[in-house]
Amino acid sequence: MRDLPVVGTPPAERADAAHNRRRIVRAAAELIATRGPEAVSMDEVARAAGVGVGTVYRRFGDRARLVYAVIDDREREFQTAFIHGPPPLGPGSPAPDRLRAFLHALADRTDAQADLLFMAESGPSDARFRDGSYGLYHRHVAMLLAQVRPGADTAYLADALLAPFAANLFLFQRRTRGMTLDRVKTGLDALADALIVRTL
Q: Which residues bind DNA (predicted)?
């Protein structure tokens, strides 16, 4: 299999600039996790990161772009894990095992940043699908499905398996319906198994 590219990899930076970026993003992530994105200011992030507020503005421009940087940082880690990481999430396991592992890992990844992902998906109606990450997920799931369901409409089935990860639905299930993350994963397993068992 040809490796998929990790989406959103930042351009090369000077060592000091890269160091500052990591400090700022880490500080923003910690503040967002404890107080929520709407309560976080650029001044607070600068203080928490130990840099001047001008450095934060020069690097990110505004709070919205800083929030997206926090999303992107976690996203790159996730993509690296399923493209290059150890099995069963990464290469080396049978397609059914990789598919289940991917769905579980994506549930964890979505749960960790559901509010931020909701903000990112709250633009145009197709905002979720324009994001480069969705295209990568879709290609990955379609590739695994092609191995377990040769000849199936894997483009459609991949969309169907990814639909539960829309942030608004995910948040509704977790917070309004009160579903645990384990229950969500069990449901995802049932969806995947309905596609997989036909070939076993």
A: 41-60
Q: How far apart are CA 105 and CA 103, in angstroms?
A: 6
Domain locations in the chain as residue ranges: 9-69, 94-200
Residue spans of alpha helices (H) in the chain: 15-35, 42-49, 53-60, 63-84, 95-112, 114-120, 127-130, 132-148, 154-162, 167-171, 181-196
In the prediction, which pLDDT does 10 show? 54
CA dist 34 and 166 (Å) reads 23
How many residues comprise the chain? 200
Is 195 within 8 Å of 145 (Cβ atoms)?
yes
Task: Please tell me the pTM assigned to this model.
Answer: 0.76
pLDDT score of 6:
60
* Average pLDDT score over residue span 154-162: 97
Average pLDDT over residues 50-72: 87
| Chosen CATH of 9-69 out of 3.30.70.980, 1.10.600.10, 1.10.10.60, 3.40.50.300 | 1.10.10.60
Beta-carbon-side half-sphere exposure of residue 189 (alpha carbons within 13 Å): 9
Instruction: Look over the chain and give the mean of its residue pLDDT values, rounded to a whole number.
Output: 88
User: What is the rounded average pLDDT of the residues 71-84?
Assistant: 91
Task: State the Cα angle at 110 between 106 and 111, rounded to 5°.
Answer: 115
